[in-house]
Amino acid sequence: MLSDQCVLLSSIFPFLEPPFLRPPPAVRRVPPRFSIPPTNHEVMPGGSVNLTCVAVGAPMPYVKWTTGDVELTKEDEMPIGRNVLELTNIRQSANYTCVAMSSLGMIETTAQITVKALPKSPTSLIVTETTATSVTLTWDSGNPEPVSYYVIQYRPKLSDNGFQEVDGVASTRYSIGGLSPYSEYEFRVMAVNNIGRGPPSGSVDTRTSEQAPSSPPLHVQARMLSSSTMLVQWKPPEEPNGQIRGYRVYYTEDLQAPLSTWQKHNTDYSELTTISGLTPDITYSLRVLGFTSVGDGPPSDVLQVKTQQGVPAQPAGFEAEAELDTRIMLTWLWPVQDPIIKFELTYWEADSGNKQHVTFDPAGSYAVEGLKPDTLYKFSLAARSEMGLGVYTQPIEARTAQSTPSAPPQEVHLLSLSSTSIKVSWTAPPAASRHGNIVRYSLAYQAAAGEDTERHEVPDIAADATSHTLDGLEKWTEYQVWVRAHTDVGPGPESPAARIRTKEDVPGAPPRRVEAEAVNSTALKVTWKPPLASKQHGQIRGYQVVYSRLENGEPRGQPVILDVALPEAQVLSCVCVCVCVCVCIWVGPLSPFVTAPQVLSIVCVCVWVCVCVFGSVPCPLCDSSTGTRLLCVCLCVCVCVFGSS
């Protein structure tokens, strides 16, 4: 009967069924599948990669790797669920298969590893076109697969420098410009893919086309063989741009005439010639140019020669170069076979007509000393022989190097803006004393007394500035200020010290040692010391005594003010009743109060001692006749007087 009841209850209320009567739960079985399959990779030769394969299922499957017929995972080391294949030093492409297996089946997936090789070198590189300044190249790719782009490398054939490059060339034909005329170059090409650059192609050499010379013949010199025959010599142009076919010598008696009207003497590629049939005892001007098969180059500078035998020709190759801020070095070519006994030099400032003359023994150079810094000079040179003075060269120019300024900034003025700031203004040094471009200014300042008497610097002030404000200074303190200008070479001298005092300010402390003493039943004597000098922040003008009755330790009623103005240059430190110190700006802190000892009557008085200064805030010590206003800093003193009255 009991068992029937149990069955009945369990059928009505299943949750009351005993556990031993319940059937076991069903187990879910899932065949294997890949949750993270391996992916394909591209690697460089010798590269490395990790292939990860993850499979799930119920039961969890075993995972292994194979490639072709080769088992890469040992059977007794086969992991469950996840297997990572580490590949190193990969040299060839291959397929790798991940196999997952359980009692419910086996699945597999394959990852492809591709060894991506660098591109091969391009082939069939040839030159298809040349000009004086450009070369056109064509080539074949040499690669079965597309490349990203090409790189062209080139350099002068005889150069020891590295190759120049043209990057990102998208086609197999390209023109390179900016080359030198009539110069031999070496070219090569390389292909680039997403792995990197391949090896270069074979080199091809070519020479650019000719062009007219771009520079004149060098070192042109001349001398008279007789009064009517001239020998002219020169060196080839520095930039011939081709094969020099010959030279043309232009000469004339009229320097101002256009070159096309000058007489012309043609010669072959030799570097000297003689010109006959000249007029004696006059000055000829001559110029020389070279030409190629393409055209004429520029003519040389004018060289002047006197048709007088034995008189030196004009010095050739005359050049000037600044060596120091006060020295310029002059150099020239020695005249050919001329008996020089002296050289005569004339020089002057470019903006002045005051010429200086110097004579010196034969040489190929001369240093002009004692010049002004950063100044443009002009120079002209002539050679002298026993037969007379030759022709002066055309003036050449050179500027001496910059130097430091020789004079300080001018008109240095100081203006006190507040109790802690000063404005400094100035003008630039005189133009003749700057010796270069002013690139910045600097300031130095120093307190004459006080807590900080160190010298301070403001190093970098703009070159176009004419003023600067110094902040954070001490109050009511005298300062010295210096200004100097700087060029790229360095600083100039400091200006004379300018002096100014910062403005007065509220005293930083009340009177010290305030003491009160009962004189009798109706009078008190109050004494004190002035604030410390460093805290006065101005000139003490007077004191103010403020007092009131003290009841139960607290002041009662309106305080009574006693003003004590100081005569000029007087320091007050004692007054009967109450006191206050006067300086020059506005009211400062009150001093603490002091209580006097017992004497007669029981009257308590609170006394404040104040420091007063001139300022813009009204004060009882105002001088109505002059409009002067005083301000105060106070110290409170309380005094009780005891007595019978």
Tally of distinct domains = 6
- How confident is the prediction overall: mean pLDDT? 83
The parts where pLDDT drops under 50 for at least 5 residues are 1-13, 569-588, 595-605, 613-634, 636-645
CATH topology name of the largest domain? Immunoglobulin-like
State the secondary-structure class: mainly beta
The CATH fourth-level homologous superfamily of the largest domain: Immunoglobulins
**The biggest beta sheet, please?**
5 strands, mixed
Mind telling me the CATH class of the largest domain? Mainly Beta
Helix content, binned percent: under 10%
Number of helices: 3
Going across the major beta sheet, what is the strand order? 2-8-7-4-5
CATH architecture term of the largest domain: Sandwich
Gap from first CA to last CA: 121 Å
Number of strands: 45
Fraction of residues in β-strands:
over 45%
Radius of gyration: 52 Å
Please state the overall shape, judged from the principal axes of the Cα atoms.
flat
Question: In brief, what are we looking at here?
Answer:
This protein has 645 residues and is mostly beta strands. The protein has 3 helices and 45 strands. It folds into 6 domains: 85 residues, Immunoglobulins (Immunoglobulin-like, Sandwich); 85 residues, Immunoglobulin-like, CATH 2.60.40; 89 residues, Sandwich (Immunoglobulin-like); 84 residues, Immunoglobulin-like; 92 residues, Sandwich (Immunoglobulin-like), CATH 2.60.40.10; 130 residues, Immunoglobulins (Immunoglobulin-like, Sandwich), CATH 2.60.40.
